[in-house]
Write a structure and sequence with these properties.
The complex is a heterodimer of chains A (507) and B (296).
Chain A: E1 7-17, E2 23-33, E3 37-42, H1 48-55, E4 63-68, E5 71-73, H2 78-83, E6 86-89, H3 101-106, H4 119-126, H5 141-154, E7 159-163, H6 171-186, E8 190-195, H7 198-204, E9 207-212, E10 215-221, H8 227-235, E11 253-263, E12 269-279, E13 283-287, H9 294-301, E14 307-314, E15 317-318, H10 324-329, E16 332-335, H11 339-343, H12 350-354, E17 365-366, E18 370-371, H13 373-386, H14 403-415, E19 421-425, H15 433-448, E20 452-456, H16 460-466, E21 469-474, E22 477-483, H17 489-496
Parallel strand pairs in A: 3-8, 3-9, 6-7, 7-8, 13-20, 13-21, 16-19, 19-20
Antiparallel strand pairs in A: 1-2, 1-4, 4-5, 9-10, 11-12, 11-14, 14-15, 17-18, 21-22
Chain B: H1 3-32, H2 40-58, H3 61-85, H4 90-113, E1 118-119, H5 135-153, H6 155-165, H7 167-172, H8 177-203, E2 207-208, H9 215-225, H10 230-252, H11 261-265, H12 267-282
Antiparallel strand pairs in B: 1-2
Classes of the chains: A alpha/beta (507), B mainly alpha (296).
């Protein structure tokens, strides 16, 4: 370890108590050196973002000291932080959608602003290339993220705080993004990388600080870290990153899809003749890069989108283009891909959301079709307890829950329907390790109990780890269907890139 | 049609359009920053009244104009405080302005001059013509491109529009959103104030509670029709202004034998309705216009 490294940031005993008494941070201390990429790892709600927003002057700490480049600082607002060279790139880019990239970079510059390097030079030096004349609403989130980084750098930031920057990026974009970060590091910038993704943190950082429930649970150089150890520090118990799976005993067919053709909203074909079947007692996985028709396929099966051609059979009955209500009553549950748009009604309460779709059930009704509030309360409290949903009160709007807890409400509700087949689309997207593991174990339990699971996920590890059989979709067609045990991750990856199973020499 | 008549029509169109142009231009600026003010009608009325009071008392039309603008600015300040800082509902606040003006002005006319209904200022209080036309009309033609330039070609304009499009991002970029919105509300409302004194001290030279006659609402429609662009607002205002003048001509033509005059009077309003309905589909308002900006 080289001895005299310049300290960029020193946070000492930072605490934050919110007015409602919640202790978000409890005496957190960390040291970040100049020119390093420092990972802040933790589950959702561990206090990562709160800590960084304190450093950025967004939130005032209740106690503790912050030193930047050796000088003690106290920020009134983020403007003070920007002044001494701290820049933050938020999870959702703070860019005006209808403005061009260039306009966004210039927006809000102080009147006495003096540029240290011209924008042109900055782009050359960092290698961050963005279409400056394009409107932000017309570019991908990955590019928007880069625009935001340019904007922050242009303002003279020496320290960059990146809050879950890769959430909306594709695998390719992440790769490119990481090379940009390495480039910035070479320029001597200090980067703080907030994430809950173990792999990424291990890949890009030099040092890691792990937070758990508002406390530092560990701090170590990346070279000495293993995924298992980090996961343990994050959740405080051993996590089975590899789920234990017993052999499957698949039974009869429960779902059969025959030559299904589905269109996108714009009228183009999303699904071009897909056929497969799901059996009792198995998890059938659909892998693929997002946007290859898997969403439309699931929507067509669950009655949310019209199937133009082909047939869907559920428990032997033809349910092609059947109403979702019919499918639910027949024993199908669906964890939709987008919990905020399709899974929940965000402005309705947690209690109301917990009975969506099953609210017609006699159990929840009194005579005259009036809701039985007590029964609903029992139901939602059972879900909260069983699924460890963190919620202030059952009448709080679903919007007020964290992403992981929102997902747990959806998952809990769907499982409470006691279905025979559960269709899970991206069930763990954006969730922390603890919640992910829990939801995966629930899916496995379903299967072990002889029920069926149709799993759609763009996370290869998830599909490979859970499924008994896996299909890979590419541009609306299945590249192949295989027993998971007889195919490698690499082969799946090739199929995701458009190679048919026959072409890569399986079977 | 002889030359004098053509000139007369042009001038009448110009005068009928000026209050619409001023008011809608101000509102475009305000809404671009995110502040919707449906109280334009009330501001015109209040400013028209205040302008006449000051102009008449001092017999100085310039002071009258400044007082009218000031009254508009004051209302804009109150509206801005309510909406930008106290996060109040934009529509309710604007409605309050209209209702207040309607109640206050008739009372004010009686309280100041002891007459009911209307008051005509004396000739010394009226705004003198410059080169034979109203100076406020000339000013309006200068102000519109100026506002366009400020909105779309300056850094200030960029910050202002950011507040109406995405205040969260504007804030994160270092724009002081509330301050900017308050400023926009004050400037925007001053424009309606100027429109008010233009009517009471310059064009119609009278003050009554019916002075704006719906022009404040038509100005709101023009904002929409113009897609929040001051240059299109110029076009829109003159289309509406001309429709008014055209009605006046129709009234003295033979047509009034066939259609009742009162029905003819509704035409500008019907034009407004038709045009707005047509414009609604294609116009794209600032995303956060009328939405109180709340920090997390």
């Amino acid at each position: 370890m080289p001895p005299e490294k310049e300290v960029a940031i020193e946070m000492v005993n930072i605490s934050k108590v919110y007015p409602d008494g919640v202790l978000a941070l409890d005496k957190v201390s960390l040291t970040i050196y100049k020119g390093e990429i420092h990972g802040i790892l933790g589950e959702n709600g561990a206090g990562k973002t709160t800590l960084m927003r304190i450093l950025y002057g967004n939130i005032k700490p209740t106690g503790g000291k912050i030193k930047v480049f050796g000088k003690e600082v106290s920020f009134g607002s983020s403007k003070d932080a920007i002044k001494i060279g701290i820049g933050m790139v938020h999870q959702h880019p703070s860019l005006v959608p209808v403005f061009t990239a260039l306009e966004n970079i210039y927006l809000g510059l102080p009147s006495n602003f003096k540029e240290q390097v011209s924008l042109k030079e900055l782009i050359e030096r960092t290698g961050i290339k963005v279409p400056l004349e394009e409107r932000i609403e017309d570019v991908s989130l990955g590019i928007a993220q880069k625009v935001e980084i340019l904007k922050v750098l242009y303002r003279g930031a020496e320290i960059l705080i990146l809050d879950e920057p890769t959430t909306n990026m594709t695998v390719e974009e992440v790769k490119e993004f990481f090379s940009t970060l390495r480039n910035l590091k070479k320029m001597g910038k200090t980067i703080i990388f907030i994430s809950h993704k173990l792999k990424e943190v291990l890949d890009i950082t030099d040092n890691i600080t792990v937070l758990r429930r508002g406390k530092v649970s560990g701090s170590l150089p990346t070279s000495q870290a293993t995924p298992e150890e980090l996961a343990k520090l994050m959740v405080g118990r051993e996590v089975f990153l590899k789920l234990e799976k017993q052999g499957s005993r698949p039974g009869e067919k429960i779902l059969r899809v025959e030559d299904l053709w589905v269109k996108r909203n714009d009228g183009s074909w999303a699904v071009k003749g897909v056929s497969f079947e799901v059996r009792y007692g198995e998890i059938f996985g659909i892998a693929g890069v997002e946007g290859n028709g898997q969403s439309e396929l699931i929507e067509a099966i669950t009655g949310l989108r019209r199937a133009e051609r082909g047939k869907v059979f559920f428990k032997g009955e033809n349910v092609t283009n059947a109403h979702p209500l019919k499918l639910y009553t027949m024993g199908l549950a669906h964890i939709p891909e987008d919990r905020q748009k399709t899974g929940l009604i965000l402005d309705m309460s947690v209690a109301e959301n917990s009975i969506l779709g099953i609210h017609r059930k006699r159990d929840f009704l009194r005579p005259m079709m009036i809701f039985n509030e007590n029964k609903i309360k029992e139901h939602v409290e059972r879900l909260i307890q069983q699924y460890e949903i963190v919620v202030s009160k059952i009448n709080a709007p679903a919007r007020s829950l964290s992403g992981g807890n929102q997902q747990k409400v959806v998952v809990g509700r769907e499982f409470s329907k006691t279905p025979d087949l559960i269709i899970a689309s991206q069930p763990t997207r954006g969730l922390d390790v603890g919640a992910t593991e829990y939801i995966r174990s629930l899916l496995l339990k379903m299967r072990n109990n002889g029920k069926a699971v149709l799993l759609m996920s763009s996370d290869i590890d998830e599909v490979m780890g859970l499924s008994d059989r896996v299909a890979v979709i590419y541009e609306g067609e299945f590249m192949g269907i295989s027993e998971t045990s007889s195919v490698s991750e690499k082969e799946i990856g090739m199929m995701m890139g458009g190679y048919k199973m026959g072409e890569i020499g399986i079977k | 049609m002889d030359e004098a008549m053509l000139l007369s029509i042009l001038l009448q169109t110009a005068y009928a359009s000026t209050p619409l142009l001023l008011s809608s231009t101000g509102e475009i600026l305000s809404e671009r920053a995110g502040i919707v003010n449906i109280g334009l009608e009330g501001i015109m009325l209040l400013s028209g009244f205040v302008g006449v009071v000051v102009g008449q008392e001092t017999l100085n039309p310039l002071l009258g104009i400044l007082a009218g603008i000031g009254a508009g600015a004051l209302v804009g300040l109150i509206h801005g405080m309510i909406t930008a800082y106290m996060k109040g509902d934009h529509v309710i606040s604007g409605l309050g302005i209209n209702l207040f003006a309607l109640g206050f002005v008739p009372y004010g006319i009686y309280a100041v001059w002891g007459v009911r209904g209307y008051f005509n200022p004396s000739d010394q209080a009226k705004v003198p013509k410059v080169f034979g036309v109203s100076p406020i009309f000339i000013a309006s033609l200068v102000l519109v491109p100026l506002i366009y330039y400020i909105l779309f070609k300056t850094r200030f304009g960029l910050s202002l529009r950011a507040c109406g499009e995405d205040p969260h991002s504007a804030d994160a970029s270092g724009v002081r959103v509330e301050r900017m919105q308050l400023l926009a509300s004050v400037i925007g409302a001053s424009f309606s104030g100027l429109a008010g004194v233009f009517m009471s001290l310059d064009w119609l030279t009278t003050i009554t509670k019916d002075l704006p006659a719906g022009r404040g609402f038509i100005a709101l429609a023009i904002v929409n029709f113009a897609n929040w662009n001051p240059l299109l607002g110029l076009l829109g205002s003159y289309v509406f202004g001309f429709s008014w003048v055209a009605i006046e001509w129709l009234k003295i033509s033979a047509l009034k034998q066939v259609i009742p005059v009162t029905l003819l009077n509704t035409i500008p309003y019907l034009v407004t309705l038709a045009v707005t309905a047509g414009a609604l589909g294609r116009s794209r308002p600032p995303k956060y216009a009328g939405v109180p900006y709340k920090k997390e």
